[in-house]
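Work through this:
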Amino acid sequence: MSATGHSSAVSPAMDGRKPVKATGLVGAWLIAGVLLAACGGSASVGQPASSVAAQSLAPTSAPSAAAGQSAAPVPSAAKPAPSAATSSAPSAALKLGFSQVGVGYAPLFIAKDAGFFSKNGLNVTLQQVNGPAAVPALLADEVQVDGLGANELSRAVLAGAPLIALATLGDVPVFMLYADKKYKTIQDLVGQSIGVTALGSSTDVTARLFLDHYGLLGKVNIVPAGGTTQTVLAALTQGVVAAVIVSPDAGVQAAKAGAVPIVEGLKLGVPLNFSVIAVKTTYIKDHPDTIKAFLKAYQQNWTYLGDPANKAAVVDLLVRDVQAPAETIEVGYASWSQVWSGQKIPTINPEGITNTLKFADDAKAKTAKGEQFIDNSILQSIQ
């Protein structure tokens, strides 16, 4: 989630556009990201997801491919949906940020690929915005909506940033702890280091949750390892760290490198926010119809993702989005489908954010409540 001085922390994805330049406020925040990355070695920006909008499937309950796009063959497990015309209203342009390329961001990727955004009159551009740059990118209007960690959001809001979270990407710790095969349990990591994308990121908070759960907080080091999933995995395979926090799909790569899973977050039963959909409060005021259209599309896609009948279509699209083998995507889907199907409306669980704040370094954050940073009312109003 950190950026280097050699590449922008905001990069295009799925649309072929040039990266957004980090200037002014964004540039100032990125300096902090560079310093943070320096603590854990070289940082780099993750590879953007490939463009798949022109190859959209025609999945169950999803809109048909937009005019001028060629639809790929529908997998046998996915039934084609009735043809659905796109919105007759003028398209509202919207830049949507996300931090990492992975299955957990399917609520954003598939909403574009399968046409949910266009059906609701939105012309959405996806931009990869690595963690420390997410808040300044929102404040500078380089993106209007961003899927970022609750820890980053709450820290900014407590510092006075006019931001609010409107929906969740997940309120359970879907991440896993993978370690070098010589470590059999999390207790074996005492005195060793766990690699995370960046301090203050969702992976950092998850590491603290795991260690706290097992009474090891303060006994195992947590270090930033370059800013992306790939640099974190590289730190593990090169022996820089003894273990890493990664998503289930990235865990497939870790396992192929010889690492073993020693903690699975989903099995802990503790609410913990993965990421939220955040916007500026002023943007909601100035563009209420755009926000409602976005949340309507987001809800439609969330429902679609949670339907097991659509698995083949979702996996096929994510193989192209994430640029990973189907076996890797299948593992990620197996975990995340439990989140999408288990929660019918993607409202934010405030307890998941409160648990995130428990591990914050800021004294104000430790006493804050999750309700201070969220507004579920707009999403609830469109049901």
